[in-house]
Amino acid sequence: MRRISRITVAGAATASLALALSACGGTSTSASSSDSKGDKGLAIAYDVGGKGDQSFNDAAYAGLEQAKKEFGYKTADVEPTEGETDADKEQRLVSLAKQGYNPVIGVGYAYAAAVKGAAEKFPDTTFGIVDDSTVEAKNVADLVFSEEEASYLAGVAAAKSTKTNTVGFVGGVDIPLIHKFQAGFEQGVQDTNPKVKVLSQYLTQTAEEGGFSSPDKGKSAAEGQIEKKADVVYAAAGLSGQGVIEAAAANKVWAIGVDSDQYNQEALAKYKDSILTSAMKDVAKAVYNLAKSVEDGKPATGIVRGDLKTGQVSLSNSNPKFADDAEVQEAIKTAKEKIVSGEIKVKTS
C-alpha cells in the first residue's frame, strides 16, 4: 500500500497540474484528495481521438475511474494535441510523474518512445503502455492483447450472419497492430465459410492523417463496401469506426464494433440496432490491474498480455438478436474453445 494515508475531499483540479500540462493538451483531474504525493495515483495520457472516442480511449478512462473509486486517490487524464511530437508526449508523461502520479500510462503504441524516455528519468515510477511490447525496462509494463483472437470470433459471426456472402473490414491505419485485427477477422470468415468474400480497406497510412479520428473517412469507406454488397462491416478504427457504424445503420446492414461493447454506448444509441456485436479487448481491466499492482506494492512489469483464455479479449452479447441466435452462438463457442486449446492458431498478419 502507499505509505501516506489518503484523506478524500471534494475539490477542483490543482492549478499546478493545469499549468504543467497546458502546453501538452487538455487535462481533467479527479476531485479527490490532498496534494501530497502519496495521495496521487493513476494517470493516463490519451491516444489520438482522445476521451469520447466510444472505443479505445474511453475504455482506458473506465479503468482509471474504477481505480479512483476503489483506491480513493487523485487521478489525472490528459488529452493529446494535434501534430504533437514524441518529445511532447514524453514531456506530458514526465510532468505527471514529477507531480507524483504512479502509475503513469500512455494509451497507445505511439507512446513507445515517450514511455521509454520518461521511465529512464523516473525509475521509481511505474509506467505502462497500451498496445506496445517494445519498451523493455524494469519499471514499465507493456499492456498488450491478442486482438486477432477476438477478431477471429468476429469473423465467425460475420460469416454466419451475411446474406450476400460479402463482408467488409475497415482498418484505421495501415500498421501491424491493425493487421492483427484484419488477419484474425479474415481467417475467422474463411474458416467458417470459404464462399464469403472479405473486402478490406485502410483509411490512412499514418495516424497523423486521421485514420483513427475521422468518422467521415470511416463512413465513406463503409459506404463503398456496402455498395459492393457487403452486409456486415467490421471496423478497427477508433473514433473513425463511428462513421462505419453510422453507414451500416443508414443502409440497414450489420456493423461489428471494436474494443468496447459499442452496442451499449450512449453516443451510439441511435445506431445500436445495427451493431451485431463488438470484438472487445479489456483495456479498462488492464489499466486498473496495473494501478492495483502498484497499490499493492508489487508493480507489474514486462509484457502483460490479455487473450481469450484470460477473458481480456471477447465478443459482446448485448444485442439480443445476436445473443439469441443459437447457430451463431454455437459456432462462436466452438471456435473459442479451439483457439483456447491451441487447435486453431490465429494469424497475426
Our Rg estimate from Cα atoms comes to: 20 Å
Largest sheet: 7 strands, mixed
Query: On the 0-100 scale, what is the average pLDDT?
Result: 89
End-to-end C-alpha gap: 42 Å
Q: What spatial form do the alpha-carbon principal axes imply?
A: globular
Quaternary organization: single chain
> What level of helicity do the residues show?
25-40%
SS field, number of helical segments: 11
Low-confidence stretches: 1-37
Structural class: alpha/beta
Total number of strands: 13
Q: SSE order in H/E notation?
A: HEEHEHEHEEHEHEHEHEEHEEHH
Lateral arrangement of strands in the main beta sheet: 1-3-2-4-5-6-12
Beta-strand share of residues: 15-25%
Structural features, described:
The protein is α/β, with parallel strands linked by helices and 349 residues long. Helix content is 38%, strand content 20%. The strands form two sheets. Strands 1-3-2-4-5-6-12 form a seven-stranded mixed sheet, with helices on both faces. Strand 2 (40-45), helix 2 (56-71) and strand 3 form a beta-alpha-beta unit. The radius of gyration is 20 Å and the shape is globular. The chain starts with 14 loop residues before the first helix and ends in an 8-residue tail after the last helix. Mean pLDDT is 89; it is low at 1-37.
Describe the structure using short key phrases.
349 residues, alpha/beta, six-stranded mixed β-sheet, globular, disordered N terminus
